[in-house]
Amino acid sequence: MTDVQGATRIDAGRIRSAWEGRVSGCLLGKPLEVLSFQRGPRGVEEYLRVAGALPLRNYVPMVEGTPVASIGRDCCLGHIVRAEPDDDINYTVLALMLLEQRGIGLETADVARAWLRLLPAGSTWTAEREAYRTLLTHMAEQFVNGNAAGFDLAECSDNPFNEWIGAQIRADLYGWACPGQPSLAAALARHDASLSHRREGVHAAAFVAALAAAIPASGDVDAAMDRALEEIPGNSLTAAAVRFGRSIAGSPDAVPRLHQHYEGLSPVHAINNLALVVWAICSCGGDFSAAIGDAVSAGWDTDCNGATVGGLCGLMGMTIPDHWTRPWNGRIAVGLAGHSELRLDDLVDRTVVVARRLAS
């Protein structure tokens, strides 16, 4: 399907809510991430039950003597003063910078250069870290031997994690900046994702970006998902994950069915987490707190899923209660070279400018 340039009005309110939702969802899931990896979904559920926080509808309470207290204290209820640095938000800001610099001319090589210039290697994980390692190795070869001119960037995505969640968490802003243009959003996300990912890892990123772009131009989330599915192969595992997430929406046993269906898959794989994201969005009935709360309490990659669900639900126009945004008060800490803390208002304004430029 061909996108219609400029067909959807740039809505600064939607973009602001997308930022607010993504930051709040990430902050909600951040203190539970290590617990989820160490003890699985049952560990997350047990912690929240002990904390008196089920169903999860506010930030995570801190229980002393737990991994949450030792690692995630600054992200717990009553301790939050800003959104703490997280790779999910780093990549969203980096995508904004890339679009500011390159616009629709963005290529994978631009992403590689931005990583080397702005993204600390220590802030990368799994596929991104392997891709970064490959970039640094070839830079060293060029410096020492002067023989790296023939380096193929495709080598960076030749890694054992190239279908994991990393590219999916980098994709949201490409959709925010392209309302009504899901094909363009998906193409930009693929250029970004291809540096470190292949196959399902790239399809998942393209779907999330296309969904974000389709939401403002669609009558409801079902129509937006149908449109976004057109941007990925219908026989892909990613498309199957979207269909499965939609099929269990509203089911009382949805969470155990998710975990049974994807048993044995890494908790940071793209497709199981995407199915969870789709289920949470389709099940929340327009309740933002339920969407991010249920997405996080279901386990797996808690901060990534909270961020993606939060951003998409904000973009859908769901009301974001004040208790999610008030604690961090527009302060967004990042781990990018030359940047330590950014303001929400500034990020919203910059995103609106980029979206208008792309629409022209």
List the helices and strands and how they pair.
Blueprint: H1 12-29, H2 33-50, H3 67-71, H4 87-102, H5 108-118, H6 126-145, H7 172-176, H8 182-193, H9 200-214, H10 221-229, H11 237-247, H12 254-261, H13 270-283, H14 288-297, H15 302-315, H16 322-325, E1 331-336, E2 339-343, H17 344-359
Antiparallel strand pairs: 1-2
Helix pairs in contact: 1-14, 1-15, 1-17, 4-17, 8-9, 9-10, 11-13, 12-13, 13-14, 13-15, 14-15
Short overview:
This protein is mostly helical and about 350 residues long. It is built from 17 helices and two strands.
The Cα radius of gyration reads 19 Å
End-to-end C-alpha gap: 19 Å
Global outline:
globular
**Average pLDDT over all residues:** 95
Q: What are the segments in which pLDDT stays under 50 over at least 5 consecutive residues? A: none
Sketch the major β-sheet.
Answer: 2 strands, antiparallel
